Amino acid sequence: MKQNVLTRYRVMAYVTAVWLLVFTAAIIAKYGFETGDTMLISQIHGVLFIVYVVFAFDLGSKAKWPFGKLLWVLAAGCIPFASFFVEPKVSREARALVTDPAPVTAEV
Predict the structure, then answer these.
(1) Do 60 and 52 form a contact (C-beta atoms < 8 A)?
(2) How far apart are CA 96 and CA 103, in angstroms?
(3) What pTM was computed for the model?
(4) Dmax over Cα atoms in the chain, in whole Å?
(5) Rounded Cα–Cα distance for residues 19 and 14 (Å)
(6) Is residue 101 part of a domain?
(7) What is the pLDDT of residue 22?
(8) Does some domain include residue 50?
């Protein structure tokens, strides 16, 4: 597995988590205080979540995760604050599977 697969997942995990928190705050403001609109925020989060699902599935298939673990990682993108706890654990496990190409040395 290449490093960029893990990096894409990590970036999208954090971006999606932050937008989920923004969306949650907008929902609380809309229904709790009857202010604001959530349409644009929900659409942005929806698109970002789809990208997160694609990247998480890509990482899971290359890391050969069991289906249950993949579902847990995908569910973490739906629960506020969960990605902040799941992502470091997943990254630690996946980092061991990253294969870096051998460094190129110049012969003199």
Answers:
(1) no
(2) 18
(3) 0.81
(4) 73
(5) 9
(6) no
(7) 92
(8) yes
Whether the per-residue pLDDT at 97 is higher than 90: the answer is no
What is the tally of structural domains in the chain?
Answer: 1
Dihedral sign, Cα of residue 7, residue 98, residue 84, residue 66? positive
102 falls within a domain? no
Q: How confident is the model at residue 105 (pLDDT cuts 50, 70, 90)?
A: low
Q: Report angle CA 79, 85, 91 to the nearest 5 degrees.
A: 115
Q: With 80 as the cut, is the pLDDT of residue 106 above it?
A: no
C-alpha 9/C-alpha 57 separation (Å) is 9
Dihedral in degrees, nearest 10, Cα atoms 100, 101, 102, 104: -130
Looking at residue 77, the DSSP 8-state letter turns out to be: T
Does the residue 55 lie in any domain? Answer: yes
Structural domain containing residue 50: 3-96
